[in-house]
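Subject: sequence -> C-alpha cells, single chain

Hey, anyone have a minute? Need the predicted structure for the following. Not urgent.
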Amino acid sequence: MLNETSTYKEIRQQPKIWKETEGIVASSKQEFVDFVNKVNEHADGKPVKVYFTGAGSSAYVGDILRLAKSNKFSEGWDFENVSTTHFVTNPLSFIEEGTVYVFVS
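Reply:
Had a minute. Here:
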C-alpha cells in the first residue's frame, strides 16, 4: 500500500504545489525587488550575505536555494546555507564585522 504513505502523497502533490508557489512568487515580484533595493540602500556598499537557515528538509532546501542565486537583483550578494543547529551553537562564528546580513528561515 505504497500509495497510502505520507511520503507518496507528499511526492504526488509536488507538481501542484510548485505551480501554486510559482504564482505566489510571481505576484510578489515587486515586493521582492523593493526589499532587495532597501537592503542594498542600507548596505551602502558593504557586502551583503544571505544565510538560508533550517534543519532537516529545510536545510536541504536552503542548500538548493543558495545555488540558484545568479540574477541581476543579487549582484554582489553572497549566499550560504547554514543548519540552524550549527548556527545556534556558535552564531558569532558566522558573523563578520562590516557585512550586512539577511537571514531566511
